[in-house]
Automatic annotation (TrEMBL):
Entry superkingdom: Eukaryota
Protein name: Transposable element P transposase
Transposable element P transposase-like GTP-binding insertion domain span: 84-188
One matching Pfam family: TNP-like_RNaseH_N
Chain ranges of the Transposable element P transposase-like RNase H domain: 3-62
InterPro entries linked: TNP-like_GBD (IPR048366), TNP-like_RNaseH_N (IPR048365)
Length: 225
């Protein structure tokens, strides 16, 4: 089933405007939806979708960011769904790990040791356990809650506290990676007025831009070993 939903940027409002079965969302369908929304008085500024093969193909046809078919003076920006990006990040982190810039390697191995060490009654990472690595089957991979818990700042702090290996660079590199992912997920998934990275974009623009740039730099250079 395919659904297109309009939602407000500044108001908690959603409205389904398209639904169909056994079809893919095409460029024509997207343009018709934008035009109809515009005709009804709604200014469409962005589209969000997950990174399925069908949607990725649609992005290519739309040249990633597109001109607004209802008003060529305004652009419509395309964004990947943040929870889906986090799930993909977790899958690769758990199964393969990543090679980052300067040939820095990060993976789950130290966190696995941390979970074993932190399994007593008094836990530092009370939300972290073995099920975060038991990513078996499509259903388990849909648990965004587990992904967010894995890349929490408390995990990074626990790694620095326990010092599981003698090489401090390994610890600091993994910790910095986790903190960057945590900050980015806080920024993209939450809206809390008084929180530095959980409020709307622009309230703390310097810090928010740094968060985005840090993750952009990581993603741009990282690859599977």
């Amino acid at each position: 089933m395919q659904i297109i939903v309009l939602r407000g940027l500044f108001y908690n409002w959603k409205q389904p405007i398209y639904m169909d079965f056994d079809t893919t969302i095409s460029k024509d369908i997207v343009f018709k939806a934008i035009n109809k929304a515009h005709a009804s008085g709604y200014n469409v500024v962005a589209c969000v979708s997950d990174m399925s093969g069908e949607n990725y193909g649609l992005w290519n046809k739309l040249n990633v960011s597109i001109e607004n078919p209802a008003d060529i003076t305004k652009e419509v920006f395309l964004f990947a769904d943040t929870p889906h990006l986090l799930k993909l990040l977790q899958n690769w982190f758990v199964y393969k790990g990543f090679l980052l810039d300067d040939n820095v390697y990060v993976d789950k191995s130290l966190i696995s040791v941390l979970i074993e060490l932190d399994s007593n009654e008094l836990k530092v990472c009370h939300k972290l356990n073995k099920q975060h690595f038991e990513v078996v089957g499509a259903v388990r991979r849909q648990y965004i809650k587990l992904v967010v818990q894995l890349f929490q700042s408390t995990t990074a702090k626990a790694l620095e506290l326990y010092k599981l290996v003698n090489d401090e660079n390994i610890i600091s590199n993994l910790s910095a990676f986790i903190v960057s992912v945590n900050d980015w997920s806080d920024f993209m998934l939450h809206q809390q007025l008084l929180q530095l990275l959980k409020c709307g974009y622009g309230l703390y623009e310097v810090e928010q831009n740094k968060c985005l740039n840090d993750v952009f730099r990581i993603v741009k250079t990282m690859h599977s070993p």
